[in-house]
């Protein structure tokens, strides 16, 4: 993974550190997560945060082979 230095305000980094602990992520991981969610939100402004979060989880599940086929119930 490529690494670059990026300047961020001390206040932003402090917020990321606090939230990263609550979410069991590294500070860098928290910032990457916010960036990923923000990128998807900018590309798809009609999607809600919960839907974006669920889509990102589903993509990771698919990468790990954790998905199962959806079975539709019979509607009589």
Automatic annotation (TrEMBL):
Protein known as: ParD-like antitoxin of type II toxin-antitoxin system
InterPro entries: ParD-like (IPR021831)
Pfam families: ParD_like
């Amino acid at each position: 993974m490529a690494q670059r230095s990026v300047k961020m305000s001390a206040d932003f980094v402090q917020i990321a550190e606090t939230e990263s602990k609550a979410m069991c992520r590294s500070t860098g991981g928290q910032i990457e997560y916010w960036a990923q969610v923000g990128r998807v939100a900018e590309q798809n402004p009609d999607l809600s945060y919960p839907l974006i979060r669920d889509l990102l989880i589903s993509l990771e599940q698919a990468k790990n082979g954790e998905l199962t086929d959806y079975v539709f119930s019979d509607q009589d």
